Every structure is written in structure tokens, then in C-alpha cells.
Amino acid sequence: MIHSLFLINHSGDIFLEKHWKSVIGRSVCDYFFEAKEKAAEPEDVPPVLQTPHHYLISIYRDRLFFLSVIQTEAPPLFVIEFLHRVVETFQDYFGECSETVIKDNVVTVYELLEEMLDNGFPLATESNILKEMIRPPTILRTMVNTLTGTSNFEERLPSGQLSTIPWRRSGVKYTNNEAYFDVIEEIDAIVDKSGTTVCAEIQGVIEACVKLTGMPDLTLSFMNPRLLDDVSFHPCVRFKRWEAERVLSFIPPDGNFTLMSYHVNAQNLVAIPVYVKQNISFFESGSGGRLDLTAGPKQTMGKTVEGLVITVHMPKAVLSASLTATQGSYTYDPATKVLVWDIGRLNPQKLPNLRGSLSLQAGAPKPEDNPSINIALKIQQLAISGLKVNRLDMYGEKYKPFKGVKYVTKAGKFQRPACVAISHFST
Amino acid sequence: GVSGSLQHELCSADGSAARQGDEREEGLRETAMYGCGFSANDELKEMLESNKESLKLEAMKRIIGLIAKGKNASELFPAVVKNVANKNIELKKLVYVYLVRYAEEQQDLALLSISTFQRALKDPNQLIRASALRVLSSIRVPIIVPIMMLAIKESASDMSPYVRKTSAHAIQKLYSLDPEQREHLIEVIEKLLKDKSTLVAGSVVMAFEEVCPDRIDLIHKNYRKLCNLLVDVEEWGQVVIISMLTRYARTQFTSPWQEGVSFDENNEKAFYDSDSEEKRDETETKPYMMDPDHRLLLRNTKPLLQSRNTAVVMAVAQLYWHLAPTHEVSAVTKSLVRLLRSHREVQYVVLQNIATMSIQRKGMFEPYMKSFYVRSTDPTHIKTLKLEILTNLANEANISTILREFQTYVKSQDKAFAAATIQAIGRCATNISEVTDTCLNGLVLLLSNRDETVVAESVVVIKKLLQTQPTQHSEIIKHMAKLFDKITVAMARASILWLIGEYCERVPKIAPDVLRKMAKSFTSEEDIVKLQIVNLAAKLYLTNSKQTKLLTQYILNLGKYDQNYDIRDRTRFIRQLIVPNEKSGALSKYARRILLAPKPAPLLQSAFKDRDRYQLGTLSHSLNLKASGYQELSDWPAVAPDQSVRNVEVIEPVNEWVPTVGKSKPAKSAKSEDKFYSDSEGEQVDRKGSKNSSSSSNDSSSSSSSSSSSSSSEAVSEPLALTPGPEAGFMTSHPSSLQVTVQPFGPVKSHELLHHMSGKGLSARYHFPRQPFLYQPSMVQLQITLTNASDQPLEGIHLGEHSPASLTLHRFSPVERLEPQASVTVSMGIDFNDSTQAANFQLCTKEAEFSVSIQPAVGELLLPASLTQADFEKEQGKLLGMNETSATITMAEGHCSSAVLNKQVRSMANLGEVITGHNNTHRFAGRTVSSGALVLVTVEKREAADATITVNTDKSVMASMLLRDLKQALASA
Question: Boundaries of each MHD domain copy (chain A) (predicted)?
Fold first, then answer.
């Protein structure tokens, strides 16, 4: 399926190549470079390209292109999904996925790629299984390796449960048995100028960190599973039990993993936690404009809004901004035309305000675009959808694990152009 | 500098620890560090040839670095290949990587390594066997084809599914090396297709797709198994299998899309019912009935829409698109829309597919219209696709919303996108006649837009719209003519000129004036504009020669000497056509009819129209061209091919086992089978047999076989009890000659199921009689003793709802009346699916329902097997490595004697004793009830009271639980 992989950096240098079948010359990448030339931004390069003898499928992530070469019909999503899995594996192993890190760990990278595909078909893509065969580098181990001349390779071959549970290794042992679940939700909302919610939806994930001895079989149930509109699962979750009983029944992978992602279609039910009053206007003369932003709490259910950041995408003509913030700090990047106002914790007694003037490029016409606004925030201990975990039961093992559920945080991206102010909240 | 000296220190530390006198190596390492003296390759060679492993490893790591960078390291081949048999696993691995990379270039030397792999293929560790096969088959040296072939054949019967998976991959490698091996490889594929391991399924189907996608016949017998295994196959395998099964289904089943027949979800049930069946026959000549195998596929793929893997979701979506009855396709919508929140590249492919789907099925995506709204951060290709989909979704009801959305897009700073939006508005205007005028007016307003591309695109679209709307639009043409001077984009200028020419009689005053201006600027116009000037001139000459004759001649003269030959050609042609002379003959009489003929309006249609001639989700679909290796999706056959080909042969269909209890009505069952399969009598038996084997042989998804089992009459009357007919033979479900022996062992422990206090007088206890369950061998038999502790008779005691719903159980026959203080023992069967997960169900009387739950000890999920010592050892040999778990314990005092030990083990687990010669080694064998997997237990007594317990089975979860229970049973006082 996947014939070769080329890793290409931002400036167009191929810094790693791997072939799973016979070797394909680098010149095949020229077709890709041609497409890259044509594209205004790296994101604009079409992910699927055709050359006279090959097909190129690429992803762009962390300022790197992962370009795979295939020779015959193969589902493009299959390849794309795999490439993303490669990036995630690198991030998992090395903490980040960058050119430097890949070059520094080239042998581990090569071993990983060798293990992940056989003859171009995915072999082991579960991080649990990979880690059993190839140890991730740690600072300590790197030291030890240098001292002793050994390597980050397992001394003995793994005895992993290759046949029964592909995502969990055998012989897992912990002195403290713990299972933590983080319910993380984000709201995507479109809010018009008056502050009315045009539409809102909630995206959620349950991130799990499970450190349990042996082969535990877990069952997680919700107080209100009906809230969940659309779900997708880690392969460990038994689909049938979800369909029948709305419980998550699974033998968990060892360590961190995303148990499920879900979508809550809440229409009007969503309580938007903050509001932003915006007044951005440009003078008819075309020489400048004024900006006045105020943020305030709306429905926060008694919780504190933290990490509030407001991002404004200014029209191209805006050269600079001279503003005063009553709280937090602001930056304006004239290259990307992005104004970022980092407010921090929202104090309901003293609403933060940012105001001042904008200067425009000389001679530029009055901008048409009404800037879109992007809001990121955090609220601890609150899942905005109201989703609640009911209980977690463990079968198959006798010990009593420590269990914990957190409802939290995280910021994302969401925006829309044009006449309405678009907000993205994350709680 | 700093790092160098650090390295140096480390080296000396290393050196002092190592044996004395390797100064040479020290020196070598120095040079390696500072890279002077030798040429790089010489240095690496010396490192590889040194006898210090760390140096070799260092060298190999650097070589891998070179390969990764695409540098040529083939010169080092002889030095590297010597290390192929090295004991250090990492070194070996890196050598393998090197070998695979360069073997093709160094064929003779590569042969030196082959014997190492041949040896490793026999290693007891499955991972070593697998990796040897992987490397051996990756060495692209034609001379070793026979060796590869042999290795593949042997590995295909390896007992480790992991090795068998590797052999499926090797098939493809060998095939690409030597396509002449095709026939032999097909044999191996055929064998591996029969494999029941979920690990192998995806890989062998992949091999099938590469080597012999045309051999659909190989799939028949494995079809149901693949459908049932699907949910447990790893993600990547799922994609390949689903795609192959889509193709398969299109050759084997009839179309569910017949016109006029609305497929009713319930008629699956209905056609078991002979009455409704007959009515159906009367009213419709040819009713559509979905083949149960077709339904099986649809049903078993649907849960995978919840997969986290986007490729799997897309695979299911395309399967539904190509195979499901029309009204069921929308089941995939929500999941596809979910994928739009994934990575950019995923969005791109998914949007392409939605674009194709939304042309035919607006309704599917209309409720999710907002998901296709463009965001300013979307890359251009995503924006364009979303625009495409929004245009496809537009209808009378939502057009005003969409147009409002489009208005904001037109203002976008991405001008290419704004232009595409104008095109889209044009398409909406032609498709929905209600809004044509609104759109046209909107577009005319855009003509005064500041941006040139917007204006140009509007002109082009207006031109097309006016053509489709041949009513009075002279105002718009006049307006455009006025704007003409301001417009500089060639295409737009050309379009306006064409419009004026085409409708010159509607703008009789303006047209000649425009021509006059054009005559002045002709030489400085672009070619495309010049051609339209010539056209305009010709049309005006024919309609208004009085005013334009001279102008036309002037323009034709300019065109005659133009640098572009197209323009010269056109000019010459036009002159001959419109200016009559002796040579022009008959044609010029028709000039008017030729030039001013009414022109067909251009079709404004989606670029994705008819794209579904390619299977959705494929590369060919994405590129809109046939990629090499693309397998066509065939049209549905008019008449379904023989359905019986998918039946799996069963050696002993044990028909005589008519149930003594239960609700099964064999007579009716046979009748409905008759209706359903309306084929020969003999085949019916086959079919039944296959059902049993498919449901019992498949441990991983017992409930998913419900489609086949539901054809028994029992399922009709009691849809929850997914008990296949009673004719299953428990012997036949185990292919091996090792039979399960019936060797019950007391003492029987009984457990409380329901206390009479909570059961309103009804009390229930259960025990495991440790006998095979007659009606369904994959079930564990349970006996429940029901006692009426009240002073009223209890009536209608039966089983109610059970959970999980996937649980398969065989109900006991209802107890109609239980007198006070009386008790009755009933037996039931539960398929625990080899897990100790509790089975929950309702125990009901006429008045009340009580929830009860049975959680079996792992030892009760087994049935004893009788093995000879030799057989035991042979089987144990196959279940080594990761299939073996063991523990050492100190036994309780009383347990040391053989008899007691034997009793302890067998009371804990339903195992059979294997008679051995040793006094100190006790062996026990059994099979799991549900899947028939062997479970071997060895208790080896050591000095004092110590003993080692070893459990060999490929059911790892069971193994660890069994080991734990055994430890308790033997260690406890």
C-alpha cells in the first residue's frame, strides 16, 4: 500500500526517507514541490496528487510535510489516517514532532517506521505494543546508554499479547493502581453582534490515564448518556454494549489514551459563559479606526473563568494598533494581522476593557471585513454539557483501584468570517 | 568541543570497565568521534569488524542515519551482512533494515544471510519466526523465490496467528517479486482465508486484493465468518475487508434499490411468517427480499461508524452508499459529518465524497448544512469543496439562507474563493428558477464591486445565466456595456462582447458603438478578446451592415495580419462566410443562420456529477480518474447467483437431537425454511448446518450471527433469545480430533441467585452441573433450583429481559405453577463468551420481576478434555511464549498429596486429569466452553511444599484468572 515516505521541512528539504518496498527516487517529490509552489500557504497543498507513475498523499503537521508515495489504488483516508498516526507516535515518543527531534532520534524513528508498516501495510500502530518493542528515549536512559553502550532496545523479545488484545501488553504491574478520566469539553458557538447565540455545539473527549495491574475489565457508565449525540470510540470499547446499554465496557490500554470523543448538539441549551462587547469601526477617510472591547461573565455557574484570551483577526489593511488594556496584555502581529488580548482570570467586579486606535495602510480603502473574534477560556470542574460520569466498575482483577474523574479545560480554534462575531469557548 | 570531551570521558570510563588492551578500539572510537583519518566508509567498516558490540551498534546507527538521509551506503554491504547472526537484538534489527534496503543491489552477498533466516524460521519464539519471515520475504532477490515460497507455505500453518499474519504480508511481497508464483500463492491465500484469527483476516484480504481480486469464489465460504469477525479485526484490516466485501456484495446480491418497492425493515421478520409471505406473493409479482447475508453485512458494519479511525468510518459509509437500501443510507450521515472535525486532509477527502453523495441525495446532508459553512481559516481547497456541497444542497426552502451565506463569501479576501462563490451563485440561479432573478440582480450589483476578479467572474456567470434565460435582459446588457471600459480581465471582456453580439438586436444602438471602440483597441487586446471582436463584427455585419460594414472590413483586415494564427484563421473564415463573392458559393447564403443560430445554454453543473462511477472513498474517486489497480464495482446482477455457495459444510448435522424442552417447533421451522430458501431439500440441511457452525465457531461475536440464527422459528417468537436451533453438535464445533470428555466432578457448589425475602417468596439457587449443554455447545449449562417459600402458589415463572443484549442464552421452559414449599430444578444455558462478565437477567413470576445476576468463576467456563500425555505435551508445545503463564506457590500443608491436589484443582476448575507417569507433575486439560480453546494446566511439585503452576492457553485473560484461582485453591489452608 504505502510504498515510501519522505519527510520534508518547511523550506522544502527532504530530511528523511523510508522505503517499504523497492527504492523510489527523490525526484518523485518534484511534483509535490510544484504543487507547493502554486499554493499560497502550506495548508493549501492538495493532500492527494497524481504523478505519471505514482500517487502522492501528504499531510502537513507541525510545520512538516509527511509525503507518502503509493503506486496503486488505496483509500486516501487510510493513508492519511496512518500518517497522522505516525506523527502522534513521534509526539508520544519524543514529546514533539519536529525536524530536530526526528534527526536526533533517527534510529528510533527508523525502527518505529519499520515496525509500523510491513510491505506498506500497517502492522503495529498501537503505542502500547510499539513501546514494548522499542523503548521511548528518556534523558536518564540516554545517559545510561551512552555510558554502557547499550541502547533503547528491549533486551529480550516482548511477550506481548499479540493475539488477544492488540492494544494492551501483558504483565502490567503497578504498586498504586489508578484510573483517571478527564472529561474535556469545548463549545463552538456563533454569536451575533447583540450577543445572541446563533448556533452552538459542544465537542467533548474523555482522556483516560489508566495504570492498573493485570487485565482489568472496566465499565464506565454515565448519569445522562442521552446527552451524547454522536460518539466515536477507541477500539477497546465494546460497540455492542454501548448500543445496548449505553455503558462503556473495555479492557483499557496501559497508560494514556483517548477513550471516546463525543458531540453534544445543544442548540439553545448552551449557556455561553462569557460575553464580549465589541465596537470596531473604521473612519470613512480611511486613515484609521477605533477599537473597544469589553469582556464580562455571563453564565458561569458559580465557577471562575480562567485563561481568558480574546483573539481578533484584523482586516489586511490594519498596520498597527495602539491600545490600552485595563487587565492583561495585548499583542498585535502586523504580519498575520492577529490581535491577541490575554486577559487571564475574569474578575466579575471589574470587567476588563481594551480600547484605542487602529492605524491603516496609507491609501488603503476602508476595510469591508468586520473582524471575527475568537475567545478561549477555561473553567475548572465544569462540563458545560452537564455530562456526568456515574460510576466506574472493574472486573477481572481483585484489587481496589483509585478512581478519579475530572471535568476540565483546553483551548482550541474556531472562527468564521464576516458579519457576525464568532466566538469559540472552551470550558 | 564540550560534547567531544564528554564523549571522551565516557569512552575512557567504558574502556576501563572493559577488558585491558583494547587501545586500538579506543583509537578507533576517537577517530569515529572526530571523523578524521579514514574515509567515512572505511571507518564504519572497521567499527563493524571490531569485536566490540557497542562499536558495531554505533556503526550501524550511523549507517541507518545515512540511509535515512538517502545517502548511498551499499559499499558497506559485506561488512554489515557478517553481523546478521549477531545475538544483540537491536544490532540484528538494524542489520535487517540495512539488508532489506540493499539486498537487491548486492544479490550474491545477500544470499549469505539466507541460512540465518531459514534457521530463525524454526525458532520457538513466534516473534523471531515472524521477523525472520518478514526480512526473508523483503529481500528482493529472484533466486530465493523457491525458499520464500516454502517459508510462506510453512508459516501459513504456523500456530501463532502473528506469524500467519506475517505470511499473508509475505504473499504480496513474493507476488510483486515473481508474478508467476500466482497460482501457488492463491493456494496459500485460500488457506489463510479460512483462518479464524482476527489478526490474520485483514492481512490475508489485503493479499487477496493484490494477488487475485478476481477470484471472488474464494470469498464465498468465508463471507459470513469475515462479516462476523469484522468488529474485532484491527482497524486497518477493517478498511480493507469492508472495501472488498462491498465489491463482493455487488456481484452476489440483487439490488435493494428496485423502484416502487420500498424496503421495509420489518419484513425481515415478516418473511418468516408464511401468511404475510403469501399475501406478498399475491400483490407483487416480484417482491424484493434482501438476502440475509446482505443484511448480515450491513448490520455488522454499522457499529464501526463509531470507530475513531476515519478510514474505517469512510469505508462503512461507502459500503452503505453502494449496498444499502436507499432509505438506510442516511445512517452514515452523522458519522461523516463528525469526520469534518478531524484533520484538514481528512476533511478534504470526506468533503469530496460528500460532494458526490450530495448531488444524488440532498436530503442526507441538508440537516447538517451549517457544518459546511466556510470558515475563514479553511484552506482554499476545503473552501471550494464546501461551496460545492452547499450549492448541491440548495433548494427552494433553504436557498435564501445559502445565498445570505454566499454574500459573505463574496466579500472574502481570498479572491479565488470569492470567484468560486460567484460561480456557485450562478449554479443556484439555474437550478432553482425561483431565485434566478434575485441571483441575477445580485450579480449585476457585483459588477460595481471594487475587485476586478469579482467583476470578471460576475460577467462570465451573468453571460451564462442570460443564455439560459433568453427573455428580455437588454437592461443588464446595456449596463455591462457601460462598464466595459472599466473591465480589464480578458475573459470578462470577451464575455461582454459575445453577449452584445449575440443579442445585438436587443441593443441596436449600443452594439455598433462598442464595435467602434473595439476597432480602435483591437491590436492591444488579448487573443480571446480579439476572437470575440471578430465575432461581434460578423454578427453586426449581418444584422446592421449599414452602420458597421466599414468597421467590420477594417477589423477583418487587422485580423488578417494578426500574429496569432487562430485569429488569422477565424478572420479568413468569417470573411468568406459573410462577404459574398464568387468563390464563397453556397455557404454564405446560410451565414445568418450559422452565426445567429440560437445557442444551447451551457450547463452549469457540479464537477462531482457522476463521480460515483468510482467506488466512494477510493483514490480513483479522489482524483476523478482511474488509478492503477482500481477494481471496478460491478452492477448488481439481475438475478442473484446461487446463495448456497456461502454455506459452510459441516460434517455432522445432528438432526436427530430434537429438543425435549424449550419452545422450538421443528415442524414450523422446516416450513419457514422452505419458504425462505425455496431450494432443494438437501441444501436446507446444509444451510442449517452452516448456521450452527458460524454461530458456534466464532467466539468473538456470538451475537452478530443473529441474522442466520434468526431464521429458526424460535427467534421469531422470541426475538431476544438468540438461540440457534438445537441441532448443533458440540463435537463438530471443535475441528481437532481431541474431544471434550464428559467427566463431571463433584462436589457441586451451589450459589444463591435469589433470596426468598427479596423474591417475594420465590427463592432460587444455581449450580454448574459441569456438563456440556445439549442445545448449544458454546453455552455453559446451569441448573436453577426454584423453591416457593411462600404460602401461595407461584405461577408462570420464566426468564425475562437479559443484559447485556449481546448475551446469548437458552431459556429454561417456564414453570407454570409452583406449589408452596415445592421446588423444581430447571436447566438453562448461557454463552459467557469465555469471559467472567456477569450475565444479568430477570426472573419473573406472573406478578413480579426480579433482577438476578450470575457471575461464573473462570473454572466453570471449561469442559474437561481427555488427552494422553503425549498429546498434552504436543499441544503444550504449541502454546508457549505468550500463551504461557506460570507462578510458583507454597502449598498449604494438606494439599501436597496427589489425591488432594487433584481434587482441589478439579473442584476449582472443570478440567480433566491427564494420566502421567510422574508423581510430582500433575496435568489437567480442558477446553473453553464457548470457543473450544485448549486450556492446559500443569502443577509441578518442587522441594518442600513449593509448586509451580503453569497455564497454557491462548485465552490470556482466562489464563491469568485461572492461575490466580488455582493459586488460591492450592495455597489456602
Answer: 176-417
CA-nearest residue to A66 within chain B is B345
b/e for A224-244, b at 16 or more Cβ within 10 A?
ebebbebbbbbbbbbbbbbee
Which residue do the cell numbers 504480508 mark?
B169
Return the pLDDT at A377.
Answer: 76
Nearest-Cα residue of chain A relative to residue B837:
A395
Q: How far apart are CA B881 and CA B277, in angstroms?
A: 56
For B620, the closest of A73, A123, A396 (CB atoms) is A73
The one-letter code for the residue type at B401 is: T
- Would you state the cell numbers that stand for residue A259, as one nine-digit string? 477513550
- Give percent of chain A above pLDDT 90: 20
DSSP symbol at B831: E
At residue A270, the pLDDT reads 61
* pTM of the full structure: 0.68
Hey, are the CB atoms on B309 and A60 less than 8 Å from each other? no
Nearest CA in chain B to A394: B837
CA distance A173 to A158: 15
CB–CB of A316 and B413 under 8 A? yes
How far apart, in whole angstroms, are the C-alpha atoms of residue B516 and residue A95?
71
Q: Please give the DSSP secondary-structure letter assigned to residue A370.
A: P
Contact B618 A73 (CB under 8 A): yes
Tell me, what's the pLDDT at A82?
95
Please name the member of A26, A159, A203 whose beta carbon is closest to the beta carbon of B881: A159
Q: Which one, of B868, B887, B904, lies nearest residue B950 by Cα?
A: B887
Report how far residue B58's alpha carbon sits from residue B32's, in angstroms, rounded to the nearest whole number: 9
Could you say which residues of chain B have pLDDT below 50? 1-37, 260-284, 651-746, 973
Residue pLDDT, tens place only, A136-152: 776 555 555 555 555 54
Q: Looking at this predicted complex, what is its ipTM?
A: 0.83
Nearest to B864 by CA among B919, B798, B935, B944: B935
Over the stretch B793-820, which tens digit does the pLDDT of each residue have? 888 888 888 877 777 888 887 888 888 8
**Touching check for A166 and chain B: CB below 8 Å?**
yes
Residues of chain B with C-beta less than 8 angstroms from the C-beta of A78:
236, 239, 311
Q: Which pairing describes strands A402-408 and A178-191: parallel, antiparallel, or unpaired?
A: parallel
CA distance B809 to B786: 18
Query: B909, B962 in Cβ contact below 8 A?
Result: yes
Cell of B297: 453485512
3-state secondary structure B505-569: CCCCCHHHHHHHHHHHHHHHCCHHHHHHHHHHHHHHHHHCHHHHHHHHHHHHHHHHCCCCHHHHH
Taking an 8 Å cut-off on Cβ atoms, the answer to whether B345 and A163 are in contact is no
Cβ contact B793:B749 at 8 Å = no
DSSP string, B702-761: GGGGHHHHTTSHHHHH-TT--PPPTT--TTTT--SSPPBP----SPPPEEEEE-TTTTTT
Residue predicted with more confidence, A318 or A190: A318
User: Is A22 close to B140, i.e. CB distance below 8 A?
Assistant: yes
Q: Do B309 and A419 touch (CB under 8 A)?
A: no
Pairs from A148-153 (Cβ < 8 Å, separation ≥ 24): A148/B14, A149/B14, A149/B53, A149/B54, A149/B57, A149/B58, A150/B54, A151/B57, A151/B90, A152/A108, A153/A111, A153/B89, A153/B90, A153/B93
* Selected residue with higher pLDDT from B448 and A39: A39
Interface subset of A 332-371, CB within 8 angstroms of B: 365, 368-369
- The grid coordinates listed for A2 are 504505502
Q: How many CB atoms lie within 10 A of CB A317?
A: 21
Q: How far is A302 from chain B (nearest CA, A)?
A: 31
Closest residue of chain B to A77, computed from CA coordinates = B311
